[in-house]
Amino acid sequence: MSTFLWGTATAAYQIEGAVAEDGRGTSIWDTFTHEPGRVRDGHTGDVACDHYHRTAEDIALMSGLGVNAYRFSISWPRVQPGGRTNEKGLGFYDRLVDDLLAEGITPVPTLFHWDLPQELQDEGGWMNRDISGKFADYAAIVAHRLADRVGTWITLNEPFVHMAFGYALGVHAPGQSLLLDALPTAHHQLLAHGLATQALRAAGAREILISNNCTPVWPASDSPEDLAAAEAYDTLHNRLFNDPILTGAYPDLSAFGKDAPQDGLDVISTPIDGLGVNYYNPTRIAAPRQDAFPFDDAGITGYPTTAFGWPVVPDGLHELLTGLKQRYGQRLPPVYVTENGCSQPDDVSPDGTVDDPERIAFLDGHLAALQRARRDGVDVRGYFVWSLLDNFEWAEGYNQRFGLVHVDFETLRRTPKSSYHWLKAYLGHQ
């Protein structure tokens, strides 16, 4: 697309609610959040922001902000519960697409943002290779319904995070703690991406991306041990999910005592039209102090932090984007920053406003870094703020607020924050 995409981003389970309405099936997050002790304060996404019933209000907020794109995710269990096509579920997204287009907002759907149908998890989830073909079938169903109006698609969101938090460490759904034995979920997600890319193309999709969570990796020192640990972490977090797609080969996994899969690489490396990059912060890595992984997170100090405790390093976005260009050269397709944002402890003032100067500073710094990367020759074609709304923040429940719009989770009242108004003014000058 020739027009730069300025947008906001959300995910189905985090905002939709309506988990038992209109034939929606059960997702792994429905199961996980209702297990005691899994989510902070026992919060669930049963209601979330109630976006399912408030789409008109939320689209009006986007239109008022002045964005020209909206990245949202499609709920697999809403569209295909029990392996059956649910017309009411498809109808919701059909109407959403039409309503966005009516406001001049480009819909950019993500097919999988972690809400796997529970019945597929019961068959092994992403540890089961068969899921890759089932994902492609689901992609075809959605594309045949929407591809006449939706040109840009994202297959998967952050397969690294889903593997690491959901299957290796157990802090996200489905809550498995397999450590390095979770690595097959990387291969199966990438196979699913490749097969879905082919299915989307067959249905008429014009642009296909994957959104990978990427991080610049900083060694804690120049010691050989720390440098080796940083290289291992870069391999696991970044290269494991970018190399097979962009180069047709896996990186060396010997640091993890594993052999890289050799099957399906022709499918995984099916050409894509853009690489989605989700950036939040760099990662500083040291030699391991225990044996489970060949690295340790050494933490980053000397920078402001978000409410999550994440360091705010705008220059890291420039480092990441230029580093991707340096690593992949002509193999790197156009890049879209598909998530970037920060959590802050936002409160409504007595006068009804929400002032969030830290988020304004975050956006200002990261947008400057983005523009600098573009001037330095990186073909960046889109930027999506995470998130439009305060929402259900996975294992943190409703305790971390990333939104440009404040949501009162008791009344569901939406209040645009000062960052919303700042970004509106910024976009007015683009």
From TrEMBL:
<comment type="similarity">
    <text>Belongs to the glycosyl hydrolase 1 family.</text>
</comment>
<feature type="binding site">
    <location>
        <begin position="393"/>
        <end position="394"/>
    </location>
    <ligand>
        <name>substrate</name>
    </ligand>
</feature>
<keyword id="KW-0136">Cellulose degradation</keyword>
<dbReference type="InterPro" id="IPR017736">
    <property type="entry name" value="Glyco_hydro_1_beta-glucosidase"/>
</dbReference>
<dbReference type="GO" id="GO:0030245">
    <property type="term" value="P:cellulose catabolic process"/>
</dbReference>
<dbReference type="Pfam" id="PF00232">
    <property type="entry name" value="Glyco_hydro_1"/>
</dbReference>
<feature type="binding site">
    <location>
        <position position="14"/>
    </location>
    <ligand>
        <name>substrate</name>
    </ligand>
</feature>
<feature type="active site" description="Nucleophile">
    <location>
        <position position="339"/>
    </location>
</feature>
<dbReference type="InterPro" id="IPR001360">
    <property type="entry name" value="Glyco_hydro_1"/>
</dbReference>
<dbReference type="GO" id="GO:0008422">
    <property type="term" value="F:beta-glucosidase activity"/>
</dbReference>
<protein>
    <recommendedName>
        <fullName>Beta-glucosidase</fullName>
        <ecNumber>3.2.1.21</ecNumber>
    </recommendedName>
</protein>
<feature type="binding site">
    <location>
        <position position="386"/>
    </location>
    <ligand>
        <name>substrate</name>
    </ligand>
</feature>
<keyword id="KW-0326">Glycosidase</keyword>
<keyword id="KW-0624">Polysaccharide degradation</keyword>
<feature type="active site" description="Proton donor">
    <location>
        <position position="158"/>
    </location>
</feature>
<feature type="binding site">
    <location>
        <position position="157"/>
    </location>
    <ligand>
        <name>substrate</name>
    </ligand>
</feature>
<dbReference type="InterPro" id="IPR033132">
    <property type="entry name" value="GH_1_N_CS"/>
</dbReference>
<dbReference type="InterPro" id="IPR017853">
    <property type="entry name" value="GH"/>
</dbReference>
<feature type="binding site">
    <location>
        <position position="113"/>
    </location>
    <ligand>
        <name>substrate</name>
    </ligand>
</feature>
<keyword id="KW-0378">Hydrolase</keyword>
<keyword id="KW-0119">Carbohydrate metabolism</keyword>
<feature type="binding site">
    <location>
        <position position="280"/>
    </location>
    <ligand>
        <name>substrate</name>
    </ligand>
</feature>
<dbReference type="GO" id="GO:0005829">
    <property type="term" value="C:cytosol"/>
</dbReference>
